[in-house]
Specification:
Layout lengths: L4 H8 L3 H52 L26 E2 L2 H4 L19 E4 L2 H4 L6 H5 L9 E3 L24 E5 L11 H4 L7 E3 L10 E5 L1 H10 L5
Parallel strand pairs: 3-5
Antiparallel strand pairs: 1-2, 2-4, 4-6
Amino acid sequence: MKHTPSTLCLTKGFSLVEMAMVLAIITLLLGGLLPTLSAQMEAQRIKETRKQLDEIQQALIGYAIINGRLPCPAYSAGEEDPVGGGNCNHAYDGFVPAATLGLTTTDSNGFAVDPWGNRFRYAVTSSNANAFTKPNGMSTAGLSALAPNLLVCSTATGISGSSCAVGTALTSSPGVPVVIFSTGKNGVTGSPMPDEQANTDGNRTFVSHTPTPDFDDQVVWLSGNILLNRMVAAGKLP
């Protein structure tokens, strides 16, 4: 039997209907995989953010041991503001001073950034005449007088610029010297909900809790007892 060219195409290849069915199946498979892959990528970013926050905490402790004080937050560049410490210009609304701490995961301006490209926020206590950030301030003030006053609350409900609502404080009294956080995937332009707003409103109270659709900040803090014990062990405090 003699085959015509059109007959050969039909017998040796896929028909248009068969190709359409294959493409439809591939599309369905990819559609099912993409949400899973996206969720895995977000989980990895969250895990990496937590690792970076831990590294920043350790860098701050190391800096305090070497220099006898905590660095001020950065603001217009990756170095602390002001350089040399003292009365910090942005104690509650600044950023991690990555250049000062020698951190490597930074943007072009020297700020530490999370996996979404947002700058890590950093607040430091200004209590006791900035004893924690001025040269020799911590040793001059004495351990008994050092009273860091940054507060972390479990909700913004009932929060003020200087206190949590009753029963919502996550930090022991009188507070902690350092709060560090990532603003998460939505950065500072995402949810307008109060819990996230409380972390960027420029005062000494912050919010931390498990993630929700309206809250994806990752917040950690440095205990005053841990910091002071590490500095005493290193011979930086009596």
